[in-house]
Specification:
736 residues, alpha/beta, 7-stranded parallel sheet, 6-stranded parallel sheet, 28 helices, 21 strands
Length: 736
């Protein structure tokens, strides 16, 4: 996983840990730039707008632009302010500038730059010390709601806090919040009048306690610069030249601050891509980028379309997605041109159900790793974090290490832990729980228990923390439905045991492995191989995307996902949620005309992925018939995945050799430590249990055990068979 673009045109800034010498002079700064990047680097006067597609080297272009200006004596380092949106991006920019011999340039986030100015000028503009900055505003929002006699649960609290942040960056005062929400077609998490009331009380409490929040840093800086022309002039004398990265994500408040920094000057360079606008829910808007040439008629406009990240096959699919887009941002889309050698075709795979999709994805990932692709260069991207659980489980079962980005592991989420505790209590004391009166069926029991934790038959409107919580609880309800379908006589206690086992299998140390992330969390990153999963209508676009603008943002979100891939790209969807369910789902409309066998909508036709194939994965439309798996104790046909691994019913007697099982666990712990992987990546607990029960005496018997497979047989077979035979393992000596 990396945020840097790789290609011969983009050499590593340092090799073998050595810092490379800076270019010898200004002209050498331009070496290695393509014609468009060179045009950006040498456009040092007047307003400049760089429209930079994904993977086109925008950071390289703008850092070389600043460095060229500094090295040529046109720009003074201290007079340049480069702003971006994350500390990581700002740090990367500063590092590159130092390596190019342009140290001393300020590269900061909007908030960091504003806070620095606010701290310096507050005594002069207002007097006294700057009010204390709130670390977290959630607690104060909770107090504000309590003052208003409005009760918010933990997730509503997060959502209302986000709404207050949105209101402030869009410069909406509390009294205007309800009208602003209605005008924006924004789904408020509660009655807008209530949120406006909480927002007003929140602002009052801040004033009473002399504290400010993150958004106030921008608002107060704007206020001082508007009211104190002497301070504004002092800042404008300091900073003569501005560069703004990710300009499509600028909020109205950030644009207002930028205007005040600039004054009547036009020494401004902005860089962005309207097709990567995916954060409108936070107040970001591409309008400032799209209107730049209107506001600055004499602006130099440069388009970067040479894609150094992705293969022609990936780029073709990305372009195809945007060819079908509608709206203003789509009118300014960039047609990328890959600069890389051809690679494998993107693969579209249709699965029968979600578990099969996850298992098929895990198998493909295992094969990629076996072929030499590092696990850290592979990502599984999904629309919402609640989708992670089934992929966590599938990768664990396949022995593939993984790491989650931007979200907790499923069983570590607060709502999942609370739900597990509630189910555990109901299983233990259910006879005294009024929620379970007259409720017999296991899924109904689960729904009854989780209803007290926020689960409802219909999802809440809109997105946010409340929706995320509901999705997590809904995933537990679906798991209960699947569990009882596989084990018709299962009880609530059985389900709790299953949940505990799954949680235990996933509480492994974080290791370098396959990245699991939401599409939003993947912005700015790239991998050799990307798996875009769950691409069915209702999830992509998400079901609560109703308006044309919301639908188009969902399309852009998928575009961002596609352009994260360098070489390998796999897209998949499932026809039903659970095994045996009705195949009523359809693949996302965004792939119409791009996946094999589909046609493009409307008059604007697009070619399907050249040479691409629509595969039917695993248990999809035409399922390979396999013989039933029978319990080796009672002979009953097994349907539950866990029982199929054990090769016996859970309640059938076990003849496991406990001592052998413990020796196997000790051996597994040593192997995992040597490999630097979680224990489950060697063998899961269930696989070890089967080995300890069957005590195989040869490779054929060991290979027949689910969870072993050819790869693990080659790697661990000799050790396991030696342990089963009571022999010392390789490397075990009396001196150890």
């Amino acid at each position: 996983m990396t945020a840097a673009t790789h290609s011969p045109l983009f050499p590593r800034e340092s090799e073998a840990g050595q810092i490379m010498a800076p270019p010898r002079d200004a002209d050498a700064v331009l070496d290695g730039l393509d014609p468009e990047q060179r045009e950006v680097a040498t456009a040092l006067h007047g307003p400049v707008c760089v429209l930079a597609g994904a993977g086109t080297g925008k950071t390289r272009a703008i850092t070389h632009r600043i460095a060229y200006g500094v090295r040529a004596g046109i720009l003074q380092p201290a007079s340049v302010l480069a702003v971006t949106f994350t500390n990581r991006a700002a740090g990367e920019m500063r590092g590159r500038l130092r390596q190019l011999g342009a140290g001393g340039v300020q590269a900061r986030t909007f908030h960091s730059a504003a806070l620095r100015q606010l701290q310096f000028f507050w005594p002069k503009a207002v007097g006294g010390e700057l009010p204390r900055l709130l670390d977290r505003k959630v607690q104060l929002v909770a107090e504000s709601a309590a003052h208003c006699r409005i009760r918010l649960d933990r997730n509503e609290l997060r959502d209302v806090t986000s709404e207050i942040e949105w209101a402030k960056v869009t410069q909406t005062v509390p009294a205007d919040y309800p009208a602003a929400v209605a005008k924006s077609v924004r789904e408020a998490p509660r009655d807008p009048a209530e949120i406006g009331q909480i927002y007003g009380m929140y602002e009052q409490l801040k004033r009473d306690r002399s504290v400010i929040d993150f958004e106030d840093v921008l608002l107060l800086t704007v206020g001082i610069l508007q009211d104190r022309h002497d301070i504004a002039d002092q800042i404008r004398r300091q900073y003569q030249h501005f560069v703004v990265d990710e300009y499509q994500d600028v909020s109205p408040l950030q644009q207002r601050l930028l205007d005040l920094w600039l004054g009547d000057r036009e020494s401004l360079c902005v860089v962005g891509d309207a097709s990567q606008t995916i954060y409108s829910f936070t107040g970001a808007t591409p309008d400032h980028l799209l209107n730049f040439r209107t506001r600055h008629p004499g602006a130099t406009v440069v388009k970067l379309v040479r894609d150094y990240r992705s293969t022609p096959q990936v780029v073709h699919l990305a372009n195809g997605l945007l060819n079908q887009a509608r709206g203003r941002a789509a009118e300014h889309r960039l047609e990328l041109v890959s600069q890389r050698d051809p690679g494998p075709e993107p693969v579209c795979t249709e699965y029968a159900d979600e578990p099969t999709e996850a298992e098929g994805t895990a198998r493909r990932i295992r094969d990629l790793i076996a072929s030499g692709v590092p696990a850290g260069e592979i990502a599984v991207l999904y629309r919402i974090n609640a989708q992670s659980e089934v992929y966590e489980q599938a990768l664990a079962d396949a022995g593939v290490p993984y790491q989650l980005r931007g979200a907790e592991r499923f069983f570590e989420r607060q709502e999942v832990r609370e739900a597990g505790a509630a189910l555990r209590g109901a299983a233990r004391f259910g006879g005294n729980d009024s929620l379970l009166d007259d409720v017999v069926e296991l899924p109904a029991q689960v729904r009854a228990v989780l209803s007290a934790k926020g689960w409802t038959t219909e999802p809440p409107a809109g997105s946010g923390a409340v929706r995320d919580r509901w999705e997590s609880l809904a995933a537990l309800v679906r798991l209960a439905e699947d569990f009882v379908r596989a084990s018709p006589g299962a009880t609530l206690a059985d389900l709790v045991a299953e949940l505990d086992e799954r949680a235990a299998a996933q509480h492994a140390p974080t290791v370098q492995g396959v990245t699991l992330a939401s599409l939003h969390a993947a912005k700015g990153l790239e991998w050799d191989a990307v798996f875009l999963v769950g691409l069915a209508e209702g999830m992509m676009p998400i079901t609560y995307a109703k308006t044309d603008e919301q639908i188009e943002e969902e399309r852009r979100l998928l575009y961002v996902g596609v352009t994260r891939a360098r070489s390998h790209l796999c897209l998949s969807w499932a026809l039903s949620r659970s095994p045996g369910g009705r195949a009523s789902r359809r693949p996302t409309r965004f792939l119409n005309g791009l996946r094999p066998g589909s046609t493009a909508p409307g008059a604007r036709s697009t070619a399907a992925v050249p040479g691409g194939a629509l595969e039917h994965g695993g248990a999809a439309v035409r399922r390979k018939r396999r013989g039933p798996v029978l319990c080796r104790v009672c002979g009953k046909t097994l349907t539950d995945a866990g029982e199929m691994k054990l090769m016996r019913c859970e309640d059938c007697p076990s003849d496991m050799d406990e001592a052998l099982y413990e020796r196997l666990r000790d051996w597994r712990a040593e192997q995992a430590k040597q490999l630097g992987q979680p224990a489950y990546c060697v063998f899961t607990d269930k696989t070890l249990m089967v080995i300890a029960e069957t005590v195989p005496d040869g490779e054929r018997e060991l290979a027949a055990i689910a969870g072993v497979g050819a790869r693990k047989l080659d790697r661990f077979g000799a050790d396991v068979l030696a342990i089963c035979a009571g022999e010392e393992r390789a490397g075990d000596t009396a001196d150890d």
